[in-house]
Amino acid sequence: MTHQDYKEMISAYALSALDAPDDSALSTHLNECAECRRELDEWKETCAPVALDAKPLEPSPQLRERILSQVRDDRSSIAKSNVVPLARKQKNVWSSLGTLGAIAASLLFLALLVNVVLLWREKQAVQSELETLRAEVSKTKKDLDEQTRIIQMFAKPGTRFAELTAMPIAPAATAKLAYDATGHAMIMTSGLPVPPAGKAYQLWFIVGGKPMPGKTFSTDSHGKAMMEDQIPAVAMNSAVFAITLEPKDGVPAPTGNMYLRS
Amino acid sequence: MQPEEAQISDVDLLKAIVRQDETALAELYDRYRVILFSLLVRILHSREEAEDVLQEVFLQVWRRAPDFDENRGRPFTWLVTLARSRGIDRLRSLAARERVALAGAREPGEEVSDAVADAFRSEQRGLVTTALDQLPDEQKRALMLAYFDGLTQSEIAEKLGAPLGTVKTRMRTGLIKLRELLGGQNASFGF
Predict the structure, then answer these.
(1) Residue of chain A whose Cα is closest to the Cα of B117
(2) Which residues of B touch A18 (CB under 8 A)?
(3) Low-confidence stretches of chain B (pLDDT beneath 70)
(4) B47: enclosing H helix or E strand
(5) What number of CA atoms fall less than 13 Å from residue A190's CA on the CB side?
(6) Are A14 and B178 in contact (CB under 8 A)?
(7) pLDDT the model gives residue B116
(8) Parallel, antiparallel or unpaired: strands A184-190 and A225-230
(9) Residues A63, B55: C-beta atoms closer than 8 Å
(10) CA–CA separation, A100 and A235 (whole Å)
(11) In terms of CB atoms within 10 Å, which of A85, A202, A238, B86 comes out highest?
(12) Among positive and negative, which fits the CA dihedral A223, A227, A230, A236?
């Protein structure tokens, strides 16, 4: 399009009547052509008075106050934000970008939060698994220690053994007691019922019909237990061994049912 | 038709508005509310829409007063161009259905009192009406459809059933004629 073509379009442009392609092309040309910009100003001067062809109408009296009130709000908000009024459009753009930035930051924060929660949960799961493994290792180590001590006891010269027989109250129960020359004893049980709350099994050394209290012990869920004790010297040669169910802290003389005896 | 001697000029009012003088904006509103509101009602056929747009226009004046350049034109032209542009934008943003409804309603609104009509400078209005009446009907029709209905040249061509080139010629010829007719009076518009 030539400069003359543009010039002939300016009057219609002043009326905003150009179709989009022409409007866009002339807008671009106006940015570069001072002569056409001056001509546009002249055409605007020509067109503006046509507004007076509209029938005179009065807006509502409230509109004036609405406008002034909005202007006061605008001024105070501008003062607060320290933004020059001219920067209104730019302010909107930055405000929109700021909003978008805030949304993006919120989303990022949310993603990080989710990630942190997931990592925390993963850490908790790993910690829990670790605790389980530690407990298993600890139990295995304890079992191994017990086995080692049992083997050592069994291998020790002079070790004697006593087998305890089940009483009718627990026919499946069995127990073996091994003790060395020093009186150090180990008792191993199986098939004993798990003692109720507040109760425990107690070992007794019966000499001349008189029971002497030993230690108390509990069983695992399979009724197994291993407990070490010290046999009183008087009971080393002629004692009868028995196991009864007693209060969990033990008693000086048996009160409960007898489950096993030699 | 000339400014009253004691009256502050529109240009000075705009300069005061640049300095955030609220009373200057109120004074400018008092001077132009009828002209601009009438224009917007003619474009939008709705008092409610027109008041809404007029509010936007004066807020824009408040914010963009520094943009006004007295070397490029009069405040009257700047304000009318601003209001008309906003009004056309609003009109074009309305759905076609709403436009039909609005056009159908043709709500005239309250006419101004005689005193306000005087303030509206009926003499100037008479000059414009006379000038427009001197244009051939087809030229005036094309200009009115563009000015108050916000139609583009191809929309006008379709509405009038005329070739696009013919419409372009009618509009350009009509505006040149209008410029000749109003040329000697143009300085009268505005305070």
Answers:
(1) A56
(2) 152-153
(3) 1-6, 95-121, 184-191
(4) helix B47-64
(5) 2
(6) no
(7) 53
(8) antiparallel
(9) yes
(10) 88
(11) A202
(12) positive
How near does any CA of chain A get to the CA of B70, in Å?
A: 11
Residues of A89-100 as b/e, b for ≥16 C-beta within 10 angstroms?
eebeeeeeeeee
Q: What is the pLDDT of residue B189?
A: 56
> CB of A175 within 8 A of CB of A189?
yes
* Nearest neighbour of A12 by CB, restricted to B83, B172, B189: B172
In our burial notation (b when 16+ CB lie closer than 10 A, e otherwise), range A229-260 reads bebeeebbeebbbbbbbbebeeeeebebebbb
Interatomic CA distance for residues A107 and B182, integer angstroms: 61
Cβ contacts below 8 Å, chain A against chain B, sum to 180
> What share of chain A has pLDDT > 90, as a percent?
46
- DSSP letter for each residue of A238-258: T-EEEEEEEETT--SS--S-E
Are the beta carbons of B112 and A56 closer than 8 angstroms? yes
Rounded to whole angstroms, how far apart are CA atoms A171 and A188?
A: 16
In terms of C-beta density within 10 A (0-12 exposed, 13-18 middle, 19 or more buried), how is residue A148 classed? exposed
Please report, for chain A, how many H helices and E strands are present, in that order.
Answer: 5, 8
pLDDT over 70 for what percent of chain B?
78
Q: How many whole angstroms separate alpha carbon B56 and alpha carbon A70?
A: 10
- Phi then psi dihedrals of residue A2, to 5 deg: -90, 170
Instruction: Indicate the length of chain A as a whole number.
Output: 262
Confidence category of residue A92, pLDDT binned at 50, 70, 90: low
Residue B34 · residue B47 · CB < 8 Å: no
- For residue A8, give the chain B residue with the closest CA: B172
DSSP alpha helix (H) spans, B65-152? 75-93, 96-105, 114-119, 122-133, 137-147
pLDDT of residue B147: 95
Residues in chain B: 191
Chain A residues in contact with B53 by the CB 8 A cut-off are none
Contact residues, chain B, for A86 at CB < 8 Å: 63-64, 66-67
Tokens (6 digits) for B126: 């008479």
